[in-house]
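call fold(seq) -> tokens
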Amino acid sequence: MPLAFLLLNVKPGKEEDVLKALAEIKEVKEAHRVYGVYDTLVKVQADTMENLKSILNNRVKRIENITSVVSLIVTSG
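ret:
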């Protein structure tokens, strides 16, 4: 199953709103607030690579208050 980790930057004070929106996406397996260069770490797993790309482009990247996304798609386990 295709797997990706996402590193998100979020508008200050909107981290909890973004986490709530991520929780509504069934393919999001984990989402954590982190400190450092990025604000949120997300684990996404889908049944196909096409579905994974669709989730990233049409669901996650459209969440309000996310200012940038770095996608790390896993190539081997």
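The first strand starts at residue 3 and ends at 10.
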